[in-house]
Amino acid sequence: MKQNLAIALGADHGGFALKQQLLAFLPTLGHAVRDCGTTGTEPVDYPRFAQAVAALVASGECDFGVVIDGAGIGSAMAANKVPGVLAAACYNGALARNAREHNDANVLALGAGFVDVETARKIVAMFLATECTEERHRRRVAMIRAIEQRRGGLSADDLGRIAERVTQMMGGADARPMPAAPTPAAIASLIDHTLLRPEATHGDIKKLCEEARRYTFYSVCVNPSYVKQAREELKGSAVKVCCVVGFPLGAQTTGSKVLEARRAIREGAREIDMVINIGALRSGDDDMVFKDIRGVVEACIEGRATSKVILETALLNDEEKRRGCRLAMKAGADFVKTSTGFSSGGATAEDIALMANEVAPRKLGVKASGGVRTLADVLRMVAAGATRVGCSSSVKIMEEAIAAAGGKG
Fold first, then answer.
1. What predicted TM-score, i.e. pTM, was given to this entire model?
2. Tens digit of pLDDT for each residue in 293-339?
3. I need a surface site. Which of 51, 76, 107, 361 has the fewest CB within 10 A?
4. Where are the domains of the chain?
């Protein structure tokens, strides 16, 4: 069993007594515990405590969470509403093992009315000792997470409206009235709010995180030296921390990229955007590119982080872009991404469409980054197949989205 894990623990009044028992038990396994309440047996509402635990897990402040109420079902439902959380209600050790081994659950829900203290201890110990290692299980878990990541909260109807709206905005021949745009919240959930300028200060990062909190962007994307600060600034928020690796040239050794990724994850990054070795891809050295990507992907799997692969499409021809996508799929990455924003060009709708088509068999996400500055740009990229957008003009884009929604956020 891994030791030195950070465990968030919370319960309502029905689970308070069992929570107190686990509060004493978890340190004996070598783990640190964050007690999220409640503090007594007076009646309280379980969703508050389930959400508090889930937010700590989703933000990376805690490795796992345990939530307790009378049956465990309601707390599991509440925790699962927080993006990034996979909560499972378990009533015996076998279910706990299955929840981790098959489903990579990161929050355990217990029903105090259905398990005694000794059984609860065994369930918790089994949950924390089990890993999700089988490729077939990881692939299915990736499919579960893709439901959340791939569409960022957008429904099929929203996506249809985006395509129609883009046609109108680009001067298409469709003469029908312009349909309603996706909600500002749906737009925000697509965005990695980005600040990668070399001159960025601590104050700039603080502002970036304040903006991300205000609009509930999917993540903030920062350089490695700012991961710790971003994690602290975003405490208690569902906004994730994304870190670039091998940035911006991609010419570092695989070993240095892996070390960089592991450190970023250890310091709080939940997503890693790595730059491939562009010269190796152009040279036809697919084995080197695969090993480069796979090294970082393995670090992300170990650290339960999402892996994104930056191709720098402005420097590649179409055959090289397709080959880069195929190597990312083969290496087990979660996303492919167009650009660093530091090269000769950024995202184009044509490149997004090419990449989305290439990675469709493995259902990888596609991130448009570089030159996305307006709401129209976002809509154009989504219509072409983007499932995430990286941009530094996020606040301006949100102001446009809110205006388009009649001033409603």
1. 0.62
2. 999 999 999 999 999 999 999 999 999 999 999 999 999 999 999 99
3. 361
4. 6-132, 143-404
Q: Can you name the residues that pair with 336 across neighbouring β-strands?
A: 309, 366
Distance CA 233, CA 244 (A): 18
Residue 310: phi and psi, rounded to 5, are -90, 120
Tell me which fold the domain 143-404 belongs to: TIM Barrel (3.20.20)
Q: pLDDT for 165-175, tens place per residue?
A: 555 544 444 43
Alpha-carbon distance of 16 to 70, in angstroms, equals 10
Fold equal for 6-132 and 143-404: no
Catalytic residue among 192, 273, 334, 377: 273
The domain defined by 6-132 folds into: Ribose 5-phosphate Isomerase B; Chain: A, (3.40.1400)
Q: Has 308 been annotated as catalytic?
A: no
Known catalytic membership, residue 273: yes
Residue 330 appears among annotated catalytic residues: no
Bigger pLDDT: 212 vs 409:
212
Residues 6+ positions from 155 with CB-CB distance below 8 Å: none
In terms of Cα–Cα distance, which of 3, 33, 2, 4 is closest to 20?
A: 33
Residues in CB range of 208: below 8 A, 6 or more apart: 193, 195, 220, 222, 230
| Phi/psi at 35 (5° precision) | -85, 115
- Residue from 19, 192, 367, 377 carrying the catalytic annotation: 367
